Amino acid sequence: MGNFRSTGCLTITTCTQPTKMEKSSDHFVSVWLSEPRTVTIGVMENPRSETLVLVVDDEENQRTALAGMIALWGYTVQTAADGLEALEKLTTFPAHVIVTDLMMPRMSGQDLLKKLKEQGGGPQAIVQTAFGNLETAVATIHDLGAFWFLEKPVQSQALRLLIERAAAQGRLAEHAGRLERQLSYHGVLGEMVGTSSAMRAVFALIQQVAPSRAAVLITGESGTGKELAARAIHALSPRRAAPFVAINCAALPDTLIESELFGHEKGSFTGAMERRIGCFEMAQNGTVLLDEIGDMPLTTQAKLLRVLEDQRVRRLGGKAEIQLDVRVLAATNSPLENAIREGRFREDLFYRLNVFPVPLPPLRDRKEDLPALVSALLLDMNRKHGVKVTDASPDFLRKLAEFQWPGNVRELRNVVERAAIMAGEGSLLIQHLPPGFGGTPGVEAARSSAPSGQELRVPVGSTIEQAERALIELTLEYTKNNRTRAADILGISQKTLFNKLKEYGSAAAGPA
Ligand SMILES: Nc1ncnc2c1ncn2[C@@H]1O[C@H](COP(=O)(O)OP(=O)(O)OP(=O)(O)O)[C@@H](O)[C@H]1O
Ligand SMILES: [Mg+2]
After folding, report:
1. Does the C-beta of 140 come closer than 6 Å to ligand 1?
2. Which ligand approaches the C-alpha of residue 416 most closely?
3. Which of 134, 203, 271, 505 is deepest in the core (most CB within 10 A)?
4. CA 80 – CA 82 distance, rounded (Å)
5. What are the chain's domains?
6. 340-371: per-residue pLDDT in tens?
7. Reported confidence tier of residue 469, pLDDT bands at 50, 70, 90
């Protein structure tokens, strides 16, 4: 039935028919009543009337005719006789769309658009151009950011369609603007978001170390943003124009890892059909991220140490040594100290990589970051899924804050993504959270993206590891061994999933 407002003019028809209300046009409401009586009624909510349109034209007849027509379509319209008057009007009438002429006294249409562009975030402009003046039209779109142009004499249907589109575009821009404003400037570093003191300290560390060429070891649980941090270090360094190359040491079989890192010459081993450039060479003058460094085989660790010390690399099976200028970052989600104690990681390599440690705090220790993170994720989701979600309700945020987030920001991202799709527009509400959210930590996110109907029964007496393994295996069964989907559902990275499978000695750890 739509919403009603209690003001506005209408036509009321009363007659003796079964009680019924109908929307007969944008402006008029007809009412049938079981018996004639006086009714108080409002205008049916018309979203167009909330769209403000400013018509700017120095020719009075043209101006009034256009304004009258646009008002008839249901928009709220005002007029101005030139650019200067338009600017003045806009201070009290924040138009979403302006329809403007170009040639006008005092201030032309071009100058008006220039001014609006300088001010930023102005209305969408539809420009009327003289017939055949395509060049000016294209220039106003390219240089002045006009929405579109219309040749004179203006075709009413074309104008109507354009205003509708421009208004929709304006609404989208407004949503994005509002979300962007919610992210305080200091809460963002590159793509990293965080307003907590813990994250500000991380941002400070990154800003401090980025300009140097020091090796950085980024540590943190899965999903805390280690890769984002590495990218931020590269982006803030003088190397930003050169490549950033990330290699995942866990996802590669031992036999391949050295060839990936250092490259190989044709015929250097069975299967080496072509010469291959390794990561270090690819990242020449730039940055290499050695991800999941803790999983690097010991023999490779020895070779890596030599490369780092000499700043020179030799392709497998090759003779020439290639001089390198590469900055090295490493990341791990399991403390390397344990691996050293267990003899799985070389202590000398650890010192070489850990010149500047950057530890990332888990999300459960910085829940103040949730509102800013949700706003940033929403911006992303609006773009990715074409939804128009404006914000998260206080209740929604409160629920998020009660959760422990074992999968950190990656898990939060999954929950927000699902909620944004469910909401489609407006605010995220509690009902957009996965069923049972806030109960047993970790299980909700899986349920949210895997409504498989399959359940896992774990007898008391099992270890966490056994339960985890059973859940992973069931999820893989559900995704028909699609590891990317399984990792998504489980709220862990593909690498972490791969590692776990490797740990279990599972057949699924083989090539996907
Ligand atoms: N501070 C942050 N601000 C915005 N997004 C973040 C932040 N931290 C993480 N994310 C997002 O969370 C997801 C996981 O981040 P990332 O891959 O960097 O984590 P990770 O620590 O490398 O995880 P893993 O150890 O599993 O590889 C990504 O989608 C990333 O964009
Ligand atoms: Mg990672």
Report:
1. no
2. 1
3. 203
4. 6
5. 1-45 (no CATH), 48-182 (3.40.50.2300), 188-361 (3.40.50.300), 364-441 (1.10.8.60), 464-509 (1.10.10.60)
6. 999 999 999 999 999 999 999 999 999 999 99
7. confident
pTM above 0.90, yes or no: no
195 lines ligand 1 (CB under 6 A): no
Ligand 1, atom 18, residue with closest C-alpha = 225
Tell me, using a 6 A CB cutoff, whether residue 198 lines ligand 1.
no
Instruction: Report CA(312)–ligand 1 centroid distance (Å).
Output: 32
User: Would you place residue 377 in the very low, low, confident or very high pLDDT band (cuts 50, 70, 90)?
Assistant: very high
Q: How far apart are alpha carbons 353 and 217 in whole angstroms?
A: 6
Reading the block at residue 318, the tokens are 């090759």
Atom of ligand 1 nearest to the CA of 229: 18
Model confidence at 16: pLDDT above 50: no
Q: 228 CB less than 6 Å from ligand 1?
A: yes
Residue 227 CA: nearest ligand 1 atom is 18
β-strands 148-151, 97-101: how paired? Answer: unpaired
Q: Is the Cβ–Cβ distance between 496 and 253 less than 8 Å?
A: no
d(CA 494, CA 487): 5
